[in-house]
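Exercise 3.2. Students should predict the tertiary structure of the chain below and write it as structure tokens, then compare their answer with the key that follows.

Predict this chain's 3D structure.
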Amino acid sequence: MSQCVSTFGDMRNDAAWNAVVELAASRHGTFHASEAATAGIEQRRLRLAVKQGELLRPYPRVYVLRSAQPSPLQRLHVATLATQLDRVDGATTSGVLSHASASALHGLIPNHPPIPSLWVPRGHRVRAEGIDVRRSEIVDPSIDITAVHGLPVMSRAAALCQLGWVAPHLVERAVDEFARTSSMRWLSETADRYRSQGSRGVVVLDQVLNDPKRLVGVTESWFERVVAGVLRHRDLPPIELQYEVIINGRRYRIDIAIPEARVGVEAHSREFQWGPRTVDADNVRDLLFGSVGWQLFYVTWWQAHHPEAFADLLTSSVRSRLASGVVTH
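Answer key:
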């Protein structure tokens, strides 16, 4: 910080300048003209500092200390300041880092994109060259926005729901990192909200989460936890393992079944046999079971890692089928 202050020469003893430089030093050398004005620095002094080479001015009303080391985080601070607007109530609002920028900031993907992406509310009229400004009514500021390194940013779940729109090839990697560090139920609930409002970015996320190739195997403990999760609901019909169904004279087995509701779970390891033939075989199996009133569930990667949540899903499906009268005896 002392190095930053000393670059202002005879202004280093100026309390106003020191306050601005201290603020800038906490944000990788960046500040906004309105912050300088609050500290008591006039525009002409800013212009003079730019002319003398002490400040850089990448965007109107956005300044960077020349002595500050350029970095990806500095670019992000500049981007948020460049989208800052004064509100009628006297407060300020700025863009919120989103999409790949937010994903990188959260550590879901390895590198920051060359062009920062920021979400701004509709009606927030701002354009800045070299910044990807996006507007969407899907974002709920009360639950989708947080802060990282002093930057306004979409939450981890919201960022992942947006990532497929700009970088579909990175979604699978981001999902793996998210699953390692955060609640997949949170991601699922956020994706449900984005999906219900027509988000195109969540399409790729759905493809990744429901790709059976990502299933790393279902263990005995998984079966036990799913069965236990279903059995805790005493109002459900009995559950059976390796249940046998005869269709057109052929015998088929279902890994987990609730015969009275005609609901079954297939947890075979499709990662060992993946491809068009396997998919076709499963589709034929679905049609066969559907022809006699059964509904089959195939375990996805997400479900394999969250047996309790899968048990809840299975329980809801059974209750729905029983209540709707779909099942006949």
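Discussion points: DSSP finds 15 helices and 14 strands in the chain. The longest strand covers residues 250-258.
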